[in-house]
Design brief:
alpha+beta; six-stranded antiparallel beta sheet; elongated; 11 strands; 10 helices
């Protein structure tokens, strides 16, 4: 990603290479006049812009189109069909932080959920993308830490590496409320809700869980999509996830001291104590009885 600075542009305050294909650009205009900032960015990169302070204005198509960005707002830009050079007019006393990341690097960050990222899906991979959004308070803290830092040179790269990923994480952070519509990068939120419901069903009925086909029918999702989606969201198959959950739940019941080994086994769906003991040992490397003795 080469840099070309125009004669009427001031230099980027600072450019930090986070990793190969991932950069932080800091634009800081502390003068009393507006300044033009320029940076060549090709079509292999996604741009995240955060207006920390003051106002900025993005210029496109030889300055024939302008896009303002107000204080405490962010802008995402991606156009796989053409280069999208950065030309920004920064108002007096204004700060802008940009994350520029290659599509290849970005894809790798979301590999387990790639099917849910709209512009990475097959039908959208060649479409341009634009999104503006408010900067959240937690993002504002990180942005100010990026702009104002006092670090020894030896840890500077480590610090900015951490802050870049923290900022991206906060940008894509989803609401804890599953009924709230999520960000537009999730291409099929309805299917995700169904898969989360499947998780809730198998947990609620852990003693007698439904078959995969029964679960598929109940949530209204094909068996293939249930299997693939569950693994993408929870990182495991339905029954492997349930096994781990049951064993953790059993461990907590044993720790409570209110139930014996047979009772705990029945609560998590084992009709015989021997099967429960074998499962517990597989998960924790010790028998339930020895585990109780170790905590007492």
């Amino acid at each position: 990603m080469e840099t070309r600075e125009k004669n009427n542009a001031v230099s980027i305050s600072e450019e930090i290479k986070v990793e190969e294909g991932f950069f932080i650009l800091k634009f800081q205009n502390d003068t009393g006049d507006s300044k033009l900032m320029s940076r060549a960015i090709d079509n292999n990169y996604i741009q995240f812009h955060f207006n920390v302070k003051g106002h900025s204005k993005f210029l496109f198509n030889n300055n024939s189109y302008e896009l303002p960005l107000a204080e405490e707002n962010s802008l995402l830009l991606y156009n796989p069909q053409r280069d999208l050079p950065l030309n920004v007019t920064l108002a007096a006393e204004s700060w802008l932080v940009s994350l520029v990341i290659s599509i290849k690097k970005f894809h790798s960050l979301f590999s387990q959920e790639a099917d849910y990222i709209t512009f990475l899906s097959a039908e959208n991979k060649d479409k341009k993308y634009y999104r503006d959004a408010a900067i959240t308070p937690s993002m504002a803290v990180v942005l100010n830490q990026i702009m104002n830092f006092n670090l020894t040179p030896s840890i500077k790269n480590l610090y900015f590496h951490a802050k870049a990923f923290e900022l991206l994480s906060l940008y894509f952070n989803k609401s804890e409320n599953p009924d709230v519509e999520q960000c537009p990068f999730l291409s099929d939120e309805e299917n995700i809700k169904k898969i989360r419901r499947a998780k809730d069903i198998v947990i609620a009925r852990m003693a007698e869980p439904p078959s995969l086909q029964e679960l598929s029918d109940e949530i209204g999702l094909s068996l293939k999509k249930l299997k693939e989606g569950f693994k993408q969201i929870y990182g495991d198959s339905v029954y492997s996830f349930l096994f781990d959950y049951k064993m953790e739940y059993a461990r907590k019941l044993l720790e409570s001291g209110e139930y014996n080994v047979n009772e705990v086994g029945l609560k998590v769906g084992y009709s015989t104590a021997s099967h429960f003991i074998a499962g517990f040992k597989k998960k924790f490397g010790t028998t339930p009885k020895k585990y109780i003795l170790s905590i007492n």
